[in-house]
Write a structure and sequence with these properties.
This protein is α/β, with parallel strands linked by helices. Strand 10 and strand 11 form a beta hairpin.
Length: 372
């Protein structure tokens, strides 16, 4: 990738790397952004040396081709190919859990448990491998200031009371979850560009971005024109960086997404183009283009006041499956009745059940209504 550090390119001499570093040129992107004349002034070498430097930086940015046999052997070498979620039926249809080396999206309306799910996965990732965990640290990128350290501890205590029965053990677990807050798109993309170094330095085994949509929807309007182009480019850049890190280090990347309302045109008997729109429906935000950037999509939705559902809306290995669950002290708990199949559709337009926030009064009691 263009953010690759020059010191990781073995064929470059230490003298050249040192001279470049003194002029704040530290990555392949920095080198390739400079003109021949600028590099000549910085290094004081011949033009052939400059061209050799540019060639090596360009080659370092190109992903290496692998045969299918090499990919198979790499997966076998890693041993762990899936990250169990502790939801038995979900893990079963996904062939073991969240696939390693891929990007998994958890989408749904507010209050359905997206952050709860991510917090539970953070606890699971810190567990030793013999308990179904990843035995490493978690990088939790929080763009909505929604992460709760108290909730992290509560889930750990209630889900694994035999492991976390003292303050020292809880502190050790909490120290393995690194929380990084970002409030602008520029700050987030800068962080993603340095993920490779952070994964190595802190031995990260799980990356969570909660949420992938909040900053984009705040800074880029959804209308046509320049803003839409910039938004698409930003999302594509995010996806490329996350997929690269996931694949290179064979770790799972989890992102959360929000919902939006779509309206489709109705056919007209008189005119080929109709100005009438059908009743809107709720679906996953960021559009169809973004849906192609994630490998697995899990959609959370409301079932009733107490229960929610998780739908496997996109997966290379699983059918369209739905599970009921509740949110309890020990995290997301799947109901005992098991899984069911549903009539799936394009994951970019899958309709989601939401709960209205309008209270209705009945015999002096207030309740909320779940709609589809």
């Amino acid at each position: 990738m263009s953010s690759k550090k020059l010191r990781r390119i073995r064929c470059l001499s230490g003298d050249i790397i040192e001279r470049l570093a003194k002029n704040n040129v530290n990555t392949c992107k920095d080198v390739l952004s400079k003109s021949d004349l600028e590099l000549l002034k910085i290094l004081g070498v011949g033009i052939f040396t400059i061209h050799h430097l540019q060639k090596q930086c360009s080659l370092a940015c190109v992903p290496q081709c692998l045969t299918s046999l090499e990919l198979l052997e790499k997966k076998k070498k890693e041993n762990v190919q899936f990250f169990p979620t502790s939801l038995c039926d979900l893990d079963f249809v996904l062939h073991g859990g969240v696939p390693m080396g891929t990007v998994t999206e958890i989408a749904g309306p507010s209050g359905c448990g997206k952050t709860q799910f991510c917090t539970m996965l953070s606890v699971l990732a810190t567990l030793p491998r013999n308990r179904g965990g990843l035995g490493g640290k978690v990088l939790y990128i929080d763009t909505e200031s929604a992460f709760s350290a108290e909730r992290l501890v509560e889930i750990a205590q209630n889900k694994y009371p035999d492991l976390y029965n003292s303050d020292d053990e809880l502190c050790d677990m909490a120290q393995k979850v690194l929380v990084d807050n970002h409030q602008t798109c520029a700050s987030l993309i800068k962080k993603l560009e340095t993920l490779e170094e952070e994964v190595i330095a802190h031995k990260i085994r799980l990356i969570i971005v909660d949420s992938i949509a909040s900053l984009v929807r705040k800074e880029f309007s959804s209308g046509a024109g320049t803003s839409l182009v910039q938004r698409t480019n930003f999302l594509s850049r995010q996806a490329a960086l996350l997929k690269y890190v996931a694949e290179v280090f064979c770790i799972p990347v989890i992102v959360t997404n929000q919902i939006t309302t779509r309206f489709s045109r109705q056919a007209s008997d008189q005119d080929e183009e109709s100005t009438e729109f059908s009743e809107g429906y709720v679906t996953v935000a960021l559009g169809n283009t973004w849906s192609h950037n994630v490998n697995t999509r899990l959609i959370l939705q409301y079932l009733n006041d107490n229960k929610r559902q998780v739908m496997v809306a996109k997966s290379p290995v699983a059918p369209f499956t739905v599970f009921n669950y509740t949110i309890q002290k020990d995290g997301i708990i799947q109901d005992a009745e098991g899984a069911g199949l549903y009539a799936g559709t394009d994951p970019g337009i899958q309709q989601i059940s939401v709960r209205t926030s309008l209270p209705f009064q009945n015999d002096n009691h207030f309740f909320t209504r779940t709609t589809k």
